From TrEMBL:
Domain of life according to the entry: Bacteria
GO CC annotation, single: plasma membrane
Keyword Transcription regulation assigned: no
Chain segments carrying region Disordered: 762-781, 812-925
Residue ranges with Basic residues bias: 812-821, 847-856
Name of this protein: Competence protein ComEC
SMART domains named among the record's database cross-references: Lactamase_B
GO biological process terms held by the UniProt record: establishment of competence for transformation
Transmembrane stretches, start-end: 20-48, 237-259, 266-282, 288-304, 311-328, 334-352, 364-385, 391-413, 420-440, 460-477, 484-507
Length: 925
């Protein structure tokens, strides 16, 4: 029996390619001096290796030549970019007018939307050249999205320093439309026509499939539903949304297989033509360029009749591309493409042979090892870029893999024939539809798995840490002595973590009644009923994916009432995700139907899903099992066409009575809206959804009237609006409230029994927030001196804090010698305060009020403050000589639970999921 020797790879060009790439990275992220030193060091290593015969002669000479060449070329390009006159002008922030030539297609930048600004693609970014320098252009999408590479245009804008990591000399913020654009090259117009044809043909599918198909084929993600992007990222399928070498391999491989009967050379020539055409169609993406050069080398070898290994082709691609365009050395897509290809070439064949030797069929072995090897090798880079590691990516790619090639080939065919035969292109798209739907379902189901993605440190530190961890595990598995220990540790972790996260997940906590969902810069709050899968949702946040993920983790399938406090983008952006796949009884909106685009979208979505839109008025009440809602505002009819502030002030304000206490839901009411609520109702609540993400437009008298023990602030991380305001946070904390923020604490759950549970952004860290007990208003009917004495004597630290709060209150509310100028929006609050009744917080003593002398002893002052707290926090107004207690005159507060009065007969329009039973809406008799 003749023993077959395994063919070894040719690694002679690998050191040279590595040296060129390292030189580019050093120049792009450090300086041109670092690039020169790195290249010269590589050349020195090659010279020593050649003299001492460490490697083969070809390998050493290639490294000796490529190192100095890369040092000179990359260092020169970086130095030219750093010293160009446009860089000097950018450092000074000058305005200029330039004639530029575009080098890439405009790519949309999706904005989540906030206030009256609609979510979507508002700006585009593209690269261009001008006066021998590379520029990055940031322009408005509606005026620049139709331009093509190769066009020359005049542009006006302001220069700014670039972000680094490339060869751009400046960033140009464009003002206005392109001036005098020149016609693009013919081949670019042809490629754009093909892409437009694919988008038109894909319109016959549903919105999700129609947006995914162009992204899968040519990387056009402009029409993708944001929910799909989020699900694919969590499932580890995000690489399918960008054109990569896999797309090119699929297209060229299909052409080669179809024409194989003509002969290997003829089929290779046809595949080479298809390669050039696909690069033009998809655009010069880094991964496409890498795959194109590598594929061209391999196909050229087939044409010449000389087979070559894939390793020299990959090394040649890196050498050529980085030397031609050093900016590719710092492109994440280029790095991911090269690393994944290396894994498929070097690791996957060995693993496949090992599986075959153990009896695994040939096709199944390759299907298993290809996504596994690619996922493991690229995991450090993905973790460094995204800050998370997908634990289901291997399985998701294994399930999705079989349909990627058919969907891609059919999409390319539809794009090619669409300009000439639109009906046939639509037919081809219909054939590709099931494959695209399968990909969507795989991503959706994989993203819902508990613990599908875990957080990880981003940047170079995170990538290096995960690389070290993976390398350590692989190294330990190679030795018999440590293999058993490593396998036992992995199995132990699996046995411990899986039951905790899948069988008995700790989120949501048992018995939750209120959850503030972490949806970024927006609001989304869920109020539970006594039925496990039924809840009221108040606002939907700006991101469909975030609110959908929150409702799934809570297990919400039926929503008798969906409340949109007002129609700003950060409150209605996730409406479609809430309505999809859930039984919704009605959508409640505020009386002000502004902005107009949001009102149209709400009506359209509600009509599509068969849900009725209602407009509850102040005083109306809703009753559900374990939950009662009362509409407090707005109290007057608004005028149309007002600004964003007016829209905020006319937010629906609700008071919910739950088994965890009273919850005040304030939407985005600002000064005028808060002042209008003072004196109308008993605003006291244990839990407050802080108005307008904690903005500075909050009345101290309003916060004092609510007297919350827990304040929930729904806000996005590092938002550019300055939310929440430190002043408002200080006021809430000075009043004794525990302030929790979704940007720092994640999802927040309020439970009965004085418990608050928060889930961090990584989805794994759950803890109970430190807090004081949520008070029961029935406990404060009379004086409880025993509690006061216990609190005063039991914790001296708490006493000092109480003293500090009293001093702040005294300084803030004492009479001023010189009245401050009147500010807009606080007229009602000032009048209430001057009357001294409960709505004004008792900030001024009424005439004839009984005045108590302020004792000089510190303990007596503390006792008075704590006595005020024990007596239900009735207003005490500090004066220059003492304090004045309000006698109870003025409008009497209406206390107690709201009656179970039906607000609307909305149950007739409530829809259940397929196969579900009908559900009744609050208060229906």
């Amino acid at each position: 029996m003749v023993r077959r020797h395994l063919r070894t790879h040719d690694h002679r060009l690998v050191p040279a390619a590595t040296a060129v790439w390292a030189t580019a990275v050093a120049g792009l992220f450090l300086s041109w001096q670092a690039a020169v030193l790195t290249g010269l060091a590589a050349g020195a290593i090659g010279f020593i290796a050649w003299r001492r015969a460490w490697w083969t002669r070809t390998c050493a000479i290639a490294l000796l030549i490529s190192g100095p060449v890369a040092a000179a070329w990359v260092g020169g390009n970086v130095l030219r970019a750093e010293t160009h006159p446009l860089r000097l002008a950018a450092d000074e922030g000058r305005s200029t007018t330039l004639t530029v030539e575009l080098t890439t297609r405009p790519k949309g930048i999706r904005a989540a939307g906030f206030g009256g600004q609609q979510a979507g693609v508002d700006n585009v970014v593209m690269t261009a050249t001008a006066n021998g320098a590379q520029l990055v252009l940031l322009a408005q999408a509606d005026r620049w999205r139709d331009l093509l590479p190769g066009q020359q245009v005049a542009v006006k804008g302001t220069l700014a320093p670039p972000r680094g990591g490339d060869l751009a000399s400046a960033l140009l913020r464009v003002r206005g439309p392109p001036i005098a654009p020149q016609p693009p090259p013919a081949w670019q117009s042809w490629a754009d026509e093909l892409r437009d044809g694919l988008r038109r043909a894909g319109a016959v599918l549903d919105d999700e499939e129609a947006g995914l198909l162009p992204a899968l084929v040519v990387g056009d993600t402009e029409q993708m539903v944001p929910r799909i992007v989020d699900e694919f990222r969590t499932a580890g399928l995000a690489h399918l949304l960008a054109v990569s070498g896999a797309n090119l391999a699929i297209v060229c491989g299909a052409v080669y297989l179809l024409l194989r009967r003509l002969g290997p050379r003829q089929a290779a020539v046809a595949a080479l033509v298809a390669l050039v055409g696909f690069v033009i169609l998809a655009g010069p993406e880094p991964s496409v360029l890498r795959a194109a050069v590598m594929g061209a080398v391999a196909l050229l070898a087939l044409v010449l009749g000389r087979e070559r290994s894939a390793v020299p082709s990959l090394a040649t691609a890196v050498l050529v591309l980085v030397l031609v365009d050093p900016a590719l050395g710092g492109d994440p897509g280029f790095a991911l493409s090269v690393v994944a290809t290396s894994a498929l070439v070097l690791i996957a064949p060995r693993w496949a042979r090992a599986l075959k030797q153990r009896g695994v069929p040939n096709g199944l072995a390759e299907a298993i090892v290809v996504p596994t090897a690619a996922s493991l090798v690229t995991a450090p880079l993905v973790a460094g870029l995204s800050g998370q590691v997908s634990l289901v990516s291997v399985v998701a790619n294994l399930i999705a893999g079989p349909v990627v090639a058919p969907a891609t080939v059919l999409g390319v065919v539809a794009a090619v024939i669409a300009p000439f035969w639109p009906a046939a292109a639509e037919l081809v798209v219909h054939v590709a539809g099931p494959a695209v739907t399968w990909l969507i379902q795989v991503g959706r189901q994989a993203s819902t798995v508990p613990g599908a993605a875990v957080s990880w440190p981003d940047g170079w530190i995170g990538a290096a840490a995960l690389t070290a961890a993976v390398a350590a595990v692989v190294l330990l598995l190679r030795f018999k002595k440590t293999r058993t220990l490593v396998v036992a540790a992995l199995v132990g972790v699996f046995v411990v973590l899986v039951p905790m996260r899948v069988v008995a997940p700790v989120w949501p906590p048992d018995g939750w009644k209120v959850v503030s969902c972490d949806v970024g810069q927006g609001d989304a709050l869920v109020l539970a009923t006594d039925e496990p899968d039924r809840a009221v949702v108040v606002d939907t946040g700006p991101d469909p994916g975030a609110i959908d993920r929150c409702l799934k983790t809570l297990g919400i399938k039926r929503i008798p009432l969906l409340v949109l406090t007002h129609l700003h983008a950060d409150h209605v952006g996730g409406l479609e995700a809430v309505l999809t796949g859930r039984a919704v009884g009605a959508v409640a909106v505020s009386p002000l139907k502004e902005p107009a685009w949001a009102w149209r979208e709400v009506n359209e979505q509600a009509r599509t899903h068969g849900v009725r839109v209602v407009e509850p008025g102040a005083g109306e009440r809703f009753a559900l099992p374990g939950l009662q809602l009362e509409v407090l505002g707005p109290r007057r009819r608004p005028a149309h066409g007002d600004a964003n502030t007016t829209v905020n002030d006319y937010s629906l304000v609700l008071k919910a009575h739950t088994r965890a206490g009273r919850v005040l839901l304030t939407g985005d009411v600002e000064l005028a809206g808060q002042a209008a609520l003072l004196g109308e109702r008993d605003l006291g609540a244990e839990v407050l959804k802080v108005p307008h993400h904690g903005s500075r437009y909050s009345l101290p008298a309003f916060l004092e009237a609510v007297r919350p023990r827990v304040a929930l602030v729904s806000v996005g991380t590092e938002n550019r609006y300055g939310h929440p305001s430190p002043h408002v946070i200080d006021l809430l904390r000075a009043g004794g409230a525990l302030v929790l923020r979704t940007d720092k604490d994640g999802d927040l759950a309020v439970l009965p029994g004085n418990r608050i549970v928060r889930r961090r952004r990584d989805g794994r860290s759950l803890d109970q927030a430190a807090q004081r007990a949520l008070p029961d208003h029935r406990r404060h009917a009379g004086t409880r001196l025993g509690d006061v004495a216990a609190e005063l004597l039991g914790d001296t630290v708490a006493a000092r804090r109480a003293q500090a709060r009293f001093r702040l209150l005294h300084l803030r509310n004492a009479r001023r010698r010189h009245p401050s100028p009147h500010r807009q929006g606080d007229r009602d609050a000032r009048a209430a305060a001057h009357r001294g009744d409960e709505t004004g917080g008792g900030v001024r003593p009424r005439g004839g009020a009984r005045v108590r002398r302020q004792p000089a002893h510190r303990a007596a002052g503390l006792a008075r403050l704590l006595l005020q707290r024990a007596q239900g926090r009735r207003p005490v107004a500090p004066t220059r000589r003492g304090v004045a207690r309000e006698r109870g005159t003025g409008r009497a507060a209406r206390a107690g639970q709201p009656a179970a009065v039906p607000a609307h007969r909305v149950d007739q329009d409530e829809r259940d999921l397929p196969g579900g039973r009908g559900d009744r809406v609050p208060g229906r008799r």
